[in-house]
Amino acid sequence: MLVACSANTVQRAADELGVTPAVVTGAQFKHQIFLNQAVEPLSVNRGKQVKARHLHVYIEGDGRPWRNRHTVSLDPTPKNLLMLKLMAVDPAPSLYLGRPCYFNLDDAGCAAEWWTDKRYSRAVVASLDQVIQQYAADYDGIMLFGHSGGGTLAMLLAALRSDVIALVTLAANLDIDAWARQHRYSDLRGSLNPAKQPVLNETIVQHHYLGTLDQNVTTEMVRPTLLRQHDAQFYLLDEVDHSCCWQQLWPEVLERLP
User: Fold this and answer.
1) Residue from 113, 99, 109 nearest 189 by CA
2) pLDDT at 77
3) Which residues does 95 contact at the CB level (< 8 Å), separation at least 6?
4) Where are the beta strands (DSSP E) in 183-232?
């Protein structure tokens, strides 16, 4: 039933937003992806000369890893696919990269640890990275976009890859230890913490956004991490919370990019 429901969600999103769904295998997991109209599937695109363009990669937030403090969700896939909606209106070639074990892909390697304790683990980052590489090889660089926990993963990916032109995070949890302490959650012991990783390459343009009404991720959590970075731009937005109102702001966010 969960698999059938997920398939319906994927098809409905594709129909409503005019994007192309596909399932791609990464280093360890299957990934649900969507492509906007500016990028072609691998079977069509491979071998073409499409250099001198950037590929935009969108990564969704954590969704619902837990039903409550004591019960793990059977399916962490978010009901509101915010990053997919943002990707669909981006005129640049863009890829929405689904996280491991989201969208109920019947992946034998999946277990709850991959969307709870190990949601930002080295294995998760490596699998996302391999999917990106399958598409990024045809472009002269990539820009990473992530909301909430997707921003956490985007920053970890930016540290791993040499072709990242820009990193954009929205309400991102950039210090998972500070986040866990603030909310009195258990530490994500199986995950990598961006706050403890080496400083990103100074050539990467960094734009980090946070809303003043956000009660999930706060300025106090992320500012120390950003102060360590090379010229990271931090935008604190009035009347914006963790999930609202990024769609209205998206054209301006894209216009600020190089």
Assistant:
1) 113
2) 94
3) 33, 34, 35, 36, 39, 55, 56, 57, 58, 87, 132, 135
4) 205-211
Q: Is the whole-model pTM more than 0.70? A: yes
Digit-coded pLDDT (tens) for 124-138: 999 999 999 999 988
- The enclosing H or E element of 246 equals helix 246-255
Task: Read off the tokens for 41.
Answer: 């599937």
Task: Give the model's pLDDT for residue 14.
Answer: 87
Scanning 48-198, the segments in alpha helix (DSSP H) are: 82-88, 122-136, 149-160, 176-183
DSSP assignment string, 38-55: TS--HHHHTT----S-EE
Instruction: Give the tens place of pLDDT for each residue, 39-75.
Output: 866 645 555 555 548 999 999 999 999 988 789 999 9
Residue 106, both tokens: 């019947």
The DSSP result for 73-107, as a single string, is -S----SS-HHHHHHHT--S-EEEEPPTT-S----
Q: Residue 193: which of 172, 210, 207, 211 has the closest Cα?
A: 172
Both tokens of 91, joined, read 């005129």
From the list 154, 31, 22, the residue with the least C-alpha distance to 103 is 31
Residue 240 has pLDDT above 70, yes or no: yes
Contact between residue 170 and residue 194 where contact means Cβ atoms under 8 Å apart: no
Distance CA 142, CA 255 (A): 16
pLDDT for 228 equals 96
CA distance 105 to 8: 12
Instruction: Please count the other Cβ atoms lying within 10 Å of the Cβ belonging to residue 38.
Output: 13
